[in-house]
Write a structure and sequence with these properties.
Strand content: 15-25%
Shape: globular
Number of domains: 3
Structural class: alpha/beta
Oligomer: single chain
CATH class of the largest domain: Alpha Beta
Largest sheet: 7 strands, mixed
Mean pLDDT: 97
Number of strands: 22
Bound molecules: flavin-adenine dinucleotide, 1,4-dihydronicotinamide adenine dinucleotide
Length: 467
C-alpha cells in the first residue's frame, strides 16, 4: 500500500538526479530521490569529477614543486604523503555530498535511501539496506541511474591490481609501472595523476589517435605535451589478455592492424575504455521500456516510451558529463512542471583537466569538413600572450572556427593552463550566436590569459595583434 503520492520520484542521486530533485522542490513539486549509495552526489561527487580533480590539483602542485618552482626561485624538497593527499580528497568529497543533503532539506526533497525498482506505472519499490521494501506512488518517475565502467573480456577488474577509475582514485601506493588501457579522458586524467606522483605510465589505445571526439590538431598537440611529461603511448594496439599475480599484471598487447603480440608488465593496470548506462535491476520491463543495443534509454525530450516515465543524464544519449546531466535534470523537471525545458546539446563544453588542460565547445574542424560547411579559422598561441609568458606557461593555443559567410562562431578549441575556466566565455558568446567579430571587439582585461580568446577571434578577422 503506497503511503504518499509524489509528483515526481527520481531514481538516482547523481548530478542528473540531484539537480532534478532540487529544481522540483524549487518549483513546488512534491519530490523524492531514491539513492542506494550511502551518500548523495552520484558518480561525479563520490568517485568521478570531484575526487579526480582533487588528486589532479594536488599532484599538479607536487609536480610543480618538483620542477617549475626552482625556475621561479623557490627551492623546496617536496616529499609525497600519499595518505594525506587521499585524506584531503576524501574530506572534500564528504563536504560536497553533505552539501547535497543540505540542499535536499532546504528544498523539501525526500531522500529515500535504498535501491529503487520500477514496479509498474506510477510505482517505485525501494529496498533498503535492511531488506525492507517501501513502495512509493509517483505521478512521474525520472530515471537518473547514470553509468558504470565498460568491461573488457580477458581483463578482469579486481580493484587490486587491475582497477577501474574508482580503484585508480584510491591506490594504496604510487605504481612503479602503470598501464592505462584507453587514451580517453579518464585514462589521461588519472594517468597524469600517477605520472606526476612518479609512476612510469604507458597508455594503450585501440585507435591511432588519443581522445576521440577532440579536434584532431588539438589532440596532436595534447599528445605531444603528455609525451614530454613522460607518458608513453601505444596507439593502434589492443590488449588481448591479462595475467594477474600478487605482484602485478602481465598484459598481452597486439597491434590492431595485425602483427606480433608483445607483453607489458605493470604493477597496476587502469581499465578506462568508456562507460555504459547503468539500468541493472531497475524494472524497466514492468513499464515496457527497452534500452537500445548499447544499453542506452532513448528518449524524446526526456520522455521514454512509457507514459509518465522520464530519463536523464548518462543513461540517455549524449555526452556522459556531469553538466550535461544537470542540464537534462533541470529541463526535464521544468517540462514535468508544465514549463519550457530546453537543452542545447551543441553547446555542451568538454574539458580534460590535465596539465595542460584542454577545453572545447561546438564543432571540430573534422565535423565542419564532414558537413561541408565553409569556415574561417583564427588561432592564437599562448607563446604570444603576455600573462602566459611572465608565468612561464606558454604551452598551447586557442583556436576559433567561424562560419565563412556569417562569421558566427561554430567551434572553439583551447589547450593550455586554466582553459577550463575560460571556455565558458565562448559558451555564452555562442549561446547568443555571436560572430567572431563580436568577441574580437570586446575589451578583455590585460594582462590575462583570456586575451588569447579575443586574439584568436581577431585572427578570424585577420587582425590579430601580438602581445
Ligand atoms: P551518476 O552520477 O552515475 O549517478 C547515478 C546514481 O544513481 C548513482 O549514485 C547510483 O548509485 C544511483 N543508482 C543507480 N541505480 C539505482 C537504483 N536502482 N536505485 C537507487 N539508486 C541508483 N563529468 C564532468 O562533467 N566533469 C568531470 O570532470 C568528470 N570527471 C569524471 C571522472 C571520473 C573518474 C568519472 C568516472 C566520471 C567523470 N565525469 C565527469 C562524468 C560524470 O561523473 C557523469 O557524467 C555524471 O556523474 C552523470 O550523472 P548522472 O546523474 O547521470 O549519473
Ligand atoms: P572515453 O570514451 O573518453 O575513452 C575511452 C578510450 O578507450 C577511447 O579512446 C577508445 O578508443 C579507447 N578504447 C576502447 N576500447 C579499447 C580497447 N579495447 N583497448 C584500448 N583502447 C580502447 O572513456 P573514459 O576515458 O573511460 O571516460 C568515460 C567517460 O567519462 C568520458 O567519455 C566522459 O564522458 C566522462 N569523463 C569526463 C571527464 C571530464 O569531463 N573531465 C573526466 C573523466 C570522465
Amino acid at each position: 500500500m503506497a503511503e504518499t503520492t509524489y509528483d515526481v520520484v527520481i531514481i538516482g542521486g547523481g548530478p542528473g538526479g540531484y539537480n532534478a530533485a532540487i529544481r522540483a522542490g524549487q518549483l513546488g513539486l512534491k519530490a523524492a530521490c531514491v539513492e542506494k549509495r550511502g551518500t548523495l552526489g552520484g558518480t561525479c561527487l563520490n568517485v568521478g569529477c570531484m575526487p579526480s580533480k582533487a588528486l589532479l590539483h594536488a599532484s599538479e602542485l607536487f609536480a610543480a614543486a618538483n620542477g617549475e618552482f626552482a625556475k621561479l626561485g623557490i627551492e623546496v624538497s617536496p616529499k609525497l604523503n600519499l595518505g594525506q593527499m587521499m585524506a584531503q580528497k576524501d574530506e572534500s568529497v564528504t563536504a560536497l555530498t553533505k552539501g547535497i543533503e543540505f540542499l535536499f532539506k532546504k528544498n523539501k526533497v525526500d531522500w529515500v535511501k535504498g535501491a529503487g525498482k520500477i514496479a509498474g506505472p506510477g510505482k517505485v519499490e525501494v529496498t533498503g539496506e535492511d531488506g525492507k521494501v517501501t513502495t512509493l506512488a509517483a505521478k512521474n518517475i525520472v530515471i537518473a541511474t547514470g553509468s558504470e565502467p565498460s568491461r573488457l573480456p580477458g581483463v578482469e577488474v579486481d580493484q587490486q591490481r587491475i582497477v577501474d577509475s574508482t580503484g585508480a582514485l584510491a591506490l594504496p601506493e604510487v605504481p612503479k609501472k602503470l598501464v592505462v588501457i584507453g587514451a580517453g579522458i579518464i585514462g589521461l586524467e588519472l594517468g597524469s595523476v600517477w605520472r606526476r606522483l612518479g609512476a612510469e605510465v604507458t597508455v594503450v589505445e585501440f585507435l591511432d589517435r588519443i581522445t576521440p571526439g577532440m579536434d584532431a590538431e588539438t589532440a596532436k598537440t595534447f599528445q605531444r605535451a603528455l609525451t614530454k611529461q613522460g607518458m608513453v603511448f601505444k596507439l593502434g594496439a589492443k590488449v588481448t589478455g591479462a595475467k594477474t599475480s600478487k605482484k602485478g599484471v602481465t598484459l598481452t598487447v597486439e597491434p590492431v592492424a595485425g602483427g606480433a603480440a608483445e607483453t607489458l608488465e605493470a604493477d597496476y593496470v587502469l581499465l578506462a575504455i568508456g562507460r555504459r548506462p547503468y539500468t541493472e535491476g531497475l524494472g524497466l520491463e514492468s513499464v515496457g521500456v527497452t534500452p537500445n543495443a548499447r544499453g542506452v534509454i532513448e528518449t524524446d525530450h526526456f520522455k521514454t516510451s512509457a507514459p509518465g516515465v522520464w530519463a536523464i543524464g548518462d543513461v540517455i544519449p549524449g555526452p556522459m558529463l556531469a553538466h550535461k546531466a544537470e542540464e537534462d535534470g533541470v529541463a526535464c523537471i521544468e517540462m514535468i512542471a508544465g514549463k519550457w525545458g530546453h537543452v542545447d546539446y551543441d553547446l555542451v563544453p568538454s574539458v580534460v583537466y590535465t596539465s595542460p588542460e584542454v577545453a572545447w565547445v561546438g564543432k571540430t574542424e573534422e565535423e565542419l569538413k564532414a558537413a561541408g560547411r565553409a569556415y574561417k579559422t583564427g588561432k592564437f598561441p599562448f607563446t604570444a600572450n603576455s600573462r602566459a609568458k611572465i608565468n612561464h606557461e606558454t604551452e598551447g593555443f586557442v583556436k576559433v572556427l567561424a562560419d565563412a559567410a556569417t562569421d558566427e562562431v561554430l567551434g572553439v578549441h583551447m589547450i593550455g593552463p586554466s582553459v577550463s575556466e575560460m571556455i565558458g566565455e565562448y559558451c555564452v558568446a555562442m549561446a547568443f550566436r555571436a560572430a567572431s567579430e563580436d568577441v574580437a571587439r570586446t575589451c578583455h582585461p590585460h594582462p590575462t590569459r583570456s586575451e588569447a580568446l579575443r586574439q584568436a577571434a581577431m585572427g578570424v578577422e585577420g587582425w590579430t595583434m601580438q602581445a
